[in-house]
Amino acid sequence: MKNTLSRGLTNLLPMVLSLWLFWSLFISLDGLGHFLLDIVELDNAFVGTGFILVAVLVFISGLLFSFSPFAWLYSWLEQQLMKFPLFKSVYGSIRDIAGLMKSDGKPKNQKTVLIKQANGGYVVGFIMNQTAPKPLTDALPDGDWVPVLFQLSYQMAGVTSLVKREDLIEVDWSFEDAMRFNLTAGISAKSITATNAKKPIKDSAKDTLVDSEPEAKNSDNKH
């Protein structure tokens, strides 16, 4: 019975939580739309009218941003509001997160890499940008430094570290699968069956074995 309950929970919980989150988002946007309709004193024809209104407004705003005068006006307003420190911090963070969803067909900067640790192990990281901020590179020793994110398991938080590009091992692994691997501490079945790392790790392992064999032979000769 325990296994049956566990099997049901494992299969239903992701679906139920996902549907609940999307439904909550739908209700929130629908309520915002209803609020806008109440302002102009229009009747709500059916459930979802507010959501459709918000979607139409977002689409129209996307069209407006394609025109230079509107984009310039919005940019000017943004610069004025960014003069307030608290607004700058909050708005800047939200804008950066929203910018991750905008690809425009360009290749993403995020790449999956491995970084060797002092104990010989490797940590999965993500190159979030190809260049580090100038104030940091000016303070660091000479080298090609890049910001690398180390994601913490079961948390959305992570640690950003500056690592020399020559110390990174690029991995032929999608950002989404590698992020899932880190977030679930390797439990995710899809991340385990994803593409394996490139050859540098295997080569380095072989080099270690090759280097260790002569030492073993020398120690046998001494005996």
TrEMBL record:
Keywords: Membrane, Transmembrane, Transmembrane helix. Coiled coil: none annotated. InterPro entries: COV1-like (IPR007462). Residues 202-223 are annotated as: Disordered. The keyword Transmembrane helix applies. The chain crosses the membrane at residues 12-29, 49-74. The keyword Metal-binding does not apply. It holds the Pfam family DUF502. PANTHER family: COV-LIKE PROTEIN 1, PROTEIN LIKE COV 2. This is DUF502 domain-containing protein.
